[in-house]
Design brief:
The protein has 266 residues and is α/β, with parallel strands linked by helices. It has one domain: NAD(P)-binding Rossmann-like Domain (Rossmann fold), CATH 3.40.50. Helices cover 43% and strands 14% of the residues. The chain has 9 helices and 7 strands, in the order βαβαβαβααβαβαααβ. A 7-stranded parallel β-sheet has the order 3-2-1-4-5-6-7, with helices on both faces.
């Protein structure tokens, strides 16, 4: 029986969230836990923040555990997914938020390096592939599994030096790969498993430290965003919950822009 938006849409379901030590992954994990899911939080190095998210999930009356996960290593991915399935007996939802954050990816094309590009693809695109491939056999057993990947917006800025609103070439290529992977995988796994993606626009984060982006570039990007502000991790999490829930049961192969109007269709 489908569970509509009663505030406990994920009761009895097991959800895996990669990158759960980060702002977006943590917000997704907490939101799933608030709505009854048993949440498995994968982290690479941010054990403390993943643990804090788990404590919030437990205080909301749900359960779960954290586990170290390196999405660039098939053995680590297999161990993480297999342990979750063995512990809880099922996997219903997979959310791939793990992504590389490195200033080497926030540069113009002429300054891009092959090694950095390869590392970006290994995390964002191949990492998503590895997690999906390991989880699909378990999702099939539920007969109604859902995968939500994280793509990204391309930006429509005209200042090529501003990689916030014009967006770096290698980053666009990696996230474009996630878009294509999502659409093709949705067709391949239908009708048993639905596959969608979220494409966040600029989200409130420590841009200056994490990406070495100057404040004036951030301000310029916000001036080009119709809603005039950064998005909140919780707003992205709400979109993920829709795509992963029974309420999104007729949606597959889609990439939803959640970007404050940064990218407009029509």
């Amino acid at each position: 029986m489908a569970k509509w938006n009663d505030g406990r849409r994920f009761e009895g379901k097991v959800a895996l969230v990669t990158g759960a030590g980060g702002a977006l992954g943590g917000a997704v994990a907490r939101a799933l836990g608030r709505e009854g899911a048993t949440v498995v939080l994968g982290y690479r190095t941010s054990e403390e923040s993943a643990g804090a998210a788990l404590r919030e999930i437990e205080s909301a009356g749900s359960e779960g555990h954290i586990g170290q996960l390196e999405v660039t290593e098939a053995e680590s991915v297999g161990r993480f997914v297999g342990a979750a399935a063995e512990r809880y007996g099922r996997i219903d939802v997979v959310v791939n938020t793990a992504g590389r954050i490195d200033p080497d990816d926030a540069v113009r094309f002429a300054d891009s390096e092959e090694e950095a590009f390869a590392a970006l693809l290994d995390v964002d695109l191949l990492g998503t592939f590895r997690v999906c491939q390991a989880a699909v056999p378990h999702l099939r057993r539920t007969g109604s599994g859902a995968i939500v990947n994280f793509s990204g917006s391309y930006g429509n800025g005209i200042d090529q030096e501003n990689v916030v609103n014009s967006v770096a070439v290698t980053y666009c290529a990696a996230k474009g790969g996630v878009r294509a992977f999502t659409s093709a995988l949705a067709r391949d796994l239908a009708p048993e498993i639905r596959v969608n993606a979220v494409a966040p626009g600029p989200i409130a984060a420590n841009w200056e430290d994490d990406w070495e982006i100057p404040k004036e570039h951030i301000d310029e990007a916000l001036a080009m965003t119709p809603l005039g502000r950064m998005g909140k991790p919780e707003e992205i999490a709400e979109t993920v919950l829709y795509l992963a829930s029974d309420g999104g049961g007729y949606t597959t192969g889609q990439v939803l822009e959640v970007s404050g109007g940064w990218i407009l269709d029509g």
